[in-house]
Structure formats: C-alpha cells, structure tokens
Amino acid sequence: MVNNRQNSEENTFRRSFGIHLTSREVFLEFIFPEIKDKLWQHRWVDLYAGEGNLILPILNSIPPENRLKFFKHHIFLSDIHSEMVEKCIENVGNYGIPSEAALKNIKVRNNLENFPIFLKDDKLPVYHITNPPYLYLGYIKKHKETQKYLNLFQGENEGYQDLYQIAMINDLRNNIENLIYIIPSNFLFGASVSNKFRLNFLKYYTIGKMYIFETKIFEYTGTNICIGFFKKKSIPKSESIEFNAIKIKNRGVKYSKSYILKPDFNYRAGSEFDEFLEEYQVSSPLKIKYYLLKKDVLQNLGDNKLKVIDANEYHNNQYRKLTIEVNDWLKDKIQSNILYVRTVDTGSYEGRVGLELISEDFNVNAIFVSGNTYRTHPIQIFFEPIIALDEQILVKDYFNFILECFRKKLDSGFLTTYKYSKAEYTRKYLGLTQVRKIIQTFPHRNMSKKIRENLKDLIKEKDFKGVLKQLEACKKESD
Questions:
Q1: Assuming Cys at both sites, which of 62, 132, 383, 407 could form a disulfide with 412, CB separation 3.0 to 4.6 Å?
Q2: What 3-state DSSP class applies to 107?
C-alpha cells in the first residue's frame, strides 16, 4: 500500500512538472555520435538537466587527467529542482570531478522564466542539448498544481501550447546556434498544438536530422517523442526544410524517411495530404454534421422505436444498447444516414480509422450521445441534404481508399499519434476537420452512372493514380 501511494505521488510530481528523465543509453546511441568530433569546440549546456544524463557521459571520452579542465570550461548544467541538481553533483563525482568544482557549474535555476545570459559571455559557443519539460497548455489550465505555469504563455509567448516550446523559443531569442532537443513528436505532426510555434521557430532554424520514436522510450509516459538536431540559419527565412529522419518502431525496427516541411502548410509533416485536400476540393462539396444528441431525441419524441448504442456507456468491451422513441422526421433522418466515423485506430488492421456502416459494426440504427460529445467515440455522420444509400457506401469506400493510400505513402505522418501501444502499427487519431475535408473532395455533383461505376472499379483495383485522374476530370467538367 505504501509503495502504491509512493508511486502515485512520484507520478503526480512528474506530471506536474512535465518531467521525463532521459537515460544515458539514449544519449550514447543517438546523440553522442553526432557531437563526438567537436567536444572541445563548444560549451555543452543542459538547462533542464535532470540527473545530467545528456551531458555528463561526454566525460567518458575525455582522458581522466583532462576531465577537470574540460568540465570547468565546457560543461554547464542547471535544473529548477534542487534534488535533481544534488543528483547531478553526485553523478559528476563519479567522473572524478570534486564537489567544489561541480558546485560552480551545476546550478539550481528556473530557465523557463529567463535565460542565463552569463552563458553567452563565454568565448566558447553554447551547444544546448536537453530534454525539456513538456506539459500541454490545456492540461496546465485544468489542474491547480500546474496553473503557476500560465504566466509563461503570456505576452510574446501568447499562442504557444507547451512548455517545451517556451524552452526552444528562449534559445531562439538568445541566439543559440546549435540545439539538440528531445521533444514530443507533435512538434512535427501536431496541427493546432504546434502550427504557430513551427512557423515562428523554423523561420530561424533548419533541421539537420531527426530520430522519430514510435515506441516507448520513457518509463512513465506513453508520449511519442523525437530527437531533433537544429541549427540556426544565417539569415531568417520562411522556406521549405528538407531532412532525413530515422523512424524507430516496436521491436527495434528502424528505417529512413525523408521529410519536406513547407511554410504554406505550417511546416507540418505529411503536408502532401493537405495539398491533396486543397487541390481536389470540389466547388459544391457534400455537407455533413456530426452526432445524434440527446437534445435531438428529446425535441423529436414519437412512436417510432429505433435501436441505438449509447456512445457514453462503454462497459466490458461493448457499448450499451437501448431503444429510443422518435417522430417520423427524426426516424427518416436516422435511417437515411448509415455511416459513422471511427476516429481512433483500435490496433487491429480491421479497426483502423475511417468511415464504416453502423448496422454492420453495431447491429443498430444509430449512435446516440447521452452525455458529452467526445472526438474519440464512434460518431454518426449526417449528410445535408440527405444522399442516396448507395452513394453513401461509395463515399465510404472512396474515403477509406484515399485515407489508406496516404497512410501508406506518408507512413500515417499526416495523422496525430494517439498513444504508445504494442500494436503492430502506430495507432493514430483522425481529426473531424480531416474527415470533413476528405468528404469535400468527393465529386458528387458530377457523378454520372458511368463515372460512378468507373470510380468503383478504380477503388476496387486500388488504382490511386486512376482515381486522381477521375477527380481531375470531374473538376474540369465542373469548372
């Protein structure tokens, strides 16, 4: 019982401060090979040092007789937590550095609030390697113990969304030329959480390379992270950034992938998908609404009984089934809209995000929302105006085909990573805005019987280029 309480307190402490301690192995495998040839050329700094695991292992490669000199002139560590600083000082002692020297270069300091300007007075250029705290602004606002950080997001920091972004923008404002940051992968793949920050930051920095982890790396969090190698541009410029990344998946699978980040798409990885949505949106797209709400049913009570699942009641791996009684108008509306969107991968290939048939997956007429709406629940789609059932099925097949083609092409990079799991693939979240935009590329107004049958055949044959040609033909006809 004591251990459980202690573990709970430790987890609360980590969460409250956004702390995820880095192992020496991460540094030695992924970071040290990139810096080992320039150790004497820089001052190696970690402003959120924790136990010092991202800097202190450098001393292993320095001859014992030179370590004290190297430490005095080439290493500076600090952290806001005194217990972490004490651990740093203890750890540096293992390399033969006396405590009096350690105390001069390892300090307790709040570097999120203000950058240590004295570091820039040194003759050696600062090279900042760090695993900063990360804590999303939405979480900070909701929890009393973290609301003390809200002042960091005011003034010139207004609009940023995470503590790690504050750390990185502080480096930018203080003209730190070389950075290696261990940060959440939403830096690359996030939309609203990262758009403003990427636009501001990547105007000044380029990306040399990245390691992108789609497997668990920290013991106490499932957050997917990346290691980014950043270098300050000689001249600030909003331009496309190209770099290679090593993606690391479950069971140690590694492969290389190239990325192009474009300012027109907020430097978000996977922008080829956004370009498709923009280029192929039809002039008069299908319109949709989400959710069958409790208020909709209460405002349309009647004698027609329909079977539904309650999206807010999930127990023993299934949704609660119930019967609602509605009038003729709502009955017709429900029975005329047969699709729902699965926004979160289940982990199986049969349960990937996309559009599906309510009757097939749940054996009911509708998906009822008895309480709050949640984007991760199954969500019924309502077309306005209503379209024929066979056309809805074609929309479903088209939607899922387009989605899977881009998942394969971009390794699902345009989707938001849901959470770490042991599934065969990295589970992703499909945003409702993305759902709407894919549907808006479906050329329903130019859908003759011949085009409909051709599109069905192309999807069945998995002919992506053929589908694009058909979309282009339909768009030219509408123009």
A1: 407
A2: strand
Helix residue spans in 284-348 (DSSP H): 294-298, 328-335
Is 4 a residue whose pLDDT tops 60? no
What are 302-344's pLDDT values in tens digits? 999 999 999 999 999 899 999 999 999 999 999 999 999 999 9
| Confidence class for position 347, pLDDT limits 50, 70, 90 | confident
Q: Distance between CA 289 and CA 300 in Å, rounded?
A: 18
DSSP state of 401: H
Place of tokens 């023993």: 316
Task: Report the number of distinct structural domains present in the chain.
Answer: 2
The three-class DSSP label of residue 21 is coil
Give yes or no: residues 367 and 243 share one domain. no
C-alpha gyration radius of the chain: 27
Q: Are residues 293 and 437 in the same domain?
A: yes
Q: Are residues 32 and 148 in the same domain?
A: yes
Tell me the helices (H) and strands (E) count for the chain, helix number first: 18, 19
Whether residues 189 and 296 fall in one domain: no
Question: Please, which residues have CB within 8 angstroms of residue 193's CB and are 6 or more apart in sequence?
Answer: 136, 161, 162, 186
Q: Which helix (H) or strand (E) holds 193?
A: none
Same domain assignment for residues 86 and 163: yes
Same domain, 304 and 412: yes
Summarize pLDDT for 126-144 with one digit per residue, the tens. Answer: 999 999 998 989 889 988 8
- Work out the number of other CB atoms within 10 angstroms of the CB of residue 138: 11
The pLDDT tens digits for 146-182 are 999 999 999 999 999 999 999 999 999 999 999 999 9
